[in-house]
Amino acid sequence: RNFLLTGALFFPTLPGHHFLQYSAAYVIMERDQRSYADVRPALLAQWEQASAVPAAALGRPLNDYERCRVAESLAWGIIKQHPWYFLKTAAVQMAKTCCSLYTAQVLLSDSGVWPGYTETTALWTKIKRFLFPAVRHMVLIPLIYFEIFMFGLLLFGLLLLLFGLTSHVTPAKAGVQAYVLNPLVFALDPGLRRDDISFRMMFCALWHSLPFVLLFIVLTLGYGCARLRMPAEPFLIMLAGAGWLWLFRQWRARGAL
To answer: What is the DSSP string of 131-144?
Structure first.
């Protein structure tokens, strides 16, 4: 459909606008020590000016894909000039995606305004926003604490998995084999493709989901938030489950359970 409408093969038209208003903006902010509120409108105005040139040559407005390509060109040009700034901001955004809470959107909806963070805002100030939330609707507080508790279980399960992988006990390793390695083995062994339905199901589940996971990983290089972690969350939950399984079997082997 996209090819028939535009003459080009593509999936979304989001990357151009996304990386221009986030990645390129963050690079300029680092370079010039300017605020986001100042940089973003200037970049969007530059995008409109750059789009006007090919539009005049074609005698028609650019479609969404063509505008996306113009934005990508502008963003990539800025990123190539300052790759270190891009890597720095991308690492920060990746950390935000890994550690942010989904209830941040709930707090935003409750207050109606974005938190007034600046470059000098301390990390503890950001953490206190969730540990001691100031909300207008008190029913949100149990929801926030429940997510913090569940997210803590997830992180601790992943740590247990890493610890189990470095030990001589096998359940954690078995969990990684079940959730990660088996689909890869299936892909390399044509014999399993015909005979083992469980491998076939794992292969389909992994490789049908992987493109969406990778898409959101790339997007989070420009802007980090919890919802971009969502496609990877099922895999993280399964791996964390393998870590908890290792711990429970350790306890049972020692007679604790």
So the answer is: HS---SSTTHHHHH
